[in-house]
Design brief:
By secondary structure, the chain is an alpha+beta fold. It is built from 9 helices and 7 strands, in the order ααααββαααββββααβ.
Length: 189
Amino acid sequence: MAPFAEARVSDKLRELLPPPEQPFFAAGDWNAVEAAIGTRLPADYKSFIGLYGAGCISRFLIIQSPFIWVAHGRNVGQEWANWASMYHDFAKYGGQEIPYAIFPQPGGLLPFGSVADSHFLNWRMVGDPERWPFVYYHRDKGFFEINGLSAMDFVLEAVTGCPPLLVLTGSESLFELPLRFAPYTGEAG
């Protein structure tokens, strides 16, 4: 386990959601990832990936590890842009108004996770990455932007059973306590 990961993921989160003994897709060259997308990423996100790797919390919450793309020889910048382009599709085919620029545009939404494969966790890339606004997209209720809520604050709220945003969107029942982290190994089944 990397010392960087130990220093940034809260003790409360580690206590409530024990990390896997062997995380998968947890380590790699963050400098190369950040160069590929043209921006620094928040430290708590990188720490989470370093400690937990790829996987799923309570079968519903996924925090994406870019090292899956790296392991499969894919271009991280292009993969992230492809993922973010879902918002263009929502606008074009679903008639939804997207009130934000979308990565790779400056200040655009950069997705980093999903809830139940239909709601998405994003950063709005404005200013210092450590203070990027958290933007939650709910497929039926639209966008919720929250300043001062980091990616790991959101995960901790979900894990403690105190998720105001998930209550607001009617998604809190997805996270029945106790929760566990299931690592994604890259193998089928």
